[in-house]
Amino acid sequence: MENRTIKSKLELEVYLTNNLNYSIISKMDFNEFKEFVLLLFREMNKLKKDGLEREDVFDFIQNLYNNQMSIVDETDILFERRFSGITEELISFCADPIFWYTDDFEIYIKKWEGAFEGDWYKVI
Questions:
Q1: Phi and psi at residue 55, in whole multiples of 5°?
Q2: In the chain, what's the furthest Cα-to-Cα distance?
Q3: pLDDT tens sequence across 48-65
Q4: Which of 49, 113, 46, 30 is nearest to 15 (CA)?
């Protein structure tokens, strides 16, 4: 996983294309996945403060989701959970607090930390 600062919508799309995919996510252990998710949403929060909106990435995320799910190993349920968890947050098909509509980012991060305490993203 790349560790860098994302400065624009285009850089975000490149980063997601390079990192939010089957070949990367399926090889991550739980701690790597957790680090990836928290870093991704921290970077996206910076972009959101600079004006990035859900509509700016909606079509891209839907296309990325469709492309990745078409090549995924259908028996890799853990990948599907992880990948869907992230993409559903980015296009707002998720439970509150929703990334795009949360003013207090730390409350939003607590949502992910709570999810990481369970086994959903760890084991099948």
A1: -60, -25
A2: 39
A3: 999 999 999 999 999 999
A4: 46
